[in-house]
Amino acid sequence: MSVASEYLQLQRESSDDMVRRHAPLVRRIAYHLMGRLPASVDVDDLVQAGMIGLLEAARNFATDRSASFETYAGIRIRGAMLDELRKTDWTPRSVHRKLREVTEVVRQIENETGADAADAEVIRRLGITAQEYHQILADASSARLLSLTAPDDDEGGAAFDVADQDGMEPQERVEQEGMRHALIDSIGNLPEREQLVMSLYYEQELNLKEIGAVLGVTESRVCQIHGQALVRLRARMVGWREAESGNGERGTGKGRAARRSG
């Protein structure tokens, strides 16, 4: 079915019919997210938020979109659920602090060597045991999704996603598109196994147990690999963000003024 045909069909449907037809998509996304969240998170809260995202998707879907309605709705549904998680962040501050420390060490090593930061070197610089390091990686995977571009602060990061561009100003759209390309490049430069886990998890929507069966490893090991990928991506995206800020300063003369004053 073409995008235009889908749009006309949606126009003919009542809101109740639309919600009923796409409710399985909402529940599927909710249970996929639950695979990385603790039992204290109520799946019904995610479903309720996802239904709101579904209604917004139907209202905003337009014939000039290149994606199908299901693809577009999936983005809006997932975004609404992540917004709900942001508002009720249950992750202890100690977890955010440890993740920031690991991220910074990974950045330092990769900036110095130009290569992927090895676990042994990260552990050595942090002065922790391998067991403690693996627990931090597990927290990175199962905690609220890490922000890849937000500044570090006591509240931790926002969600692992690229925001929808509806309602953005032209400059915001350019910046968002730049971040999207930087994220794609960063994922493409991950170690092969981390790339595969990210693909299976975010594109194929397999859960950690299913990915473990594909790779022939335990679910806990997949959790660690996923955490490694998230930390590595966050380290690289923070570096990208700082580089973009530096370029912006030079473009406005702030960078030149700072050098003259020094």
Automatic annotation (TrEMBL):
* Ranges where the record places region Sigma-70 factor domain-2: 18-90
Which residues does the annotated region (Sigma-70 factor domain-3) include?
98-168
The UniProt entry, under Pfam families, shows: Sigma70_r2, Sigma70_r3, Sigma70_r4
Q: Name one GO biological process term.
A: DNA-templated transcription initiation
Query: Where's it found, cell-wise?
Result: Cytoplasm
Q: Which GO terms describe its molecular function?
A: DNA binding; DNA-directed RNA polymerase activity; sigma factor activity
Gene behind the chain = fliA
Q: Which InterPro entries match?
A: RNA_pol_sigma-70_dom (IPR014284), RNA_pol_sigma70 (IPR000943), RNA_pol_sigma70_r2 (IPR007627), RNA_pol_sigma70_r3 (IPR007624), RNA_pol_sigma70_r4 (IPR007630), RNA_pol_sigma_FliA_WhiG (IPR012845), RNA_pol_sigma_r2 (IPR013325), RNA_pol_sigma_r3/r4-like (IPR013324)
What protein name does the entry list?
RNA polymerase sigma factor FliA
Please report, in chain numbering, the residue ranges of the motif Interaction with polymerase core subunit RpoC.
45-48
Q: Which organism is it from?
A: Dyella tabacisoli
Instruction: Tell me which family the UniProt entry assigns to this protein.
Output: Belongs to the sigma-70 factor family. FliA subfamily.
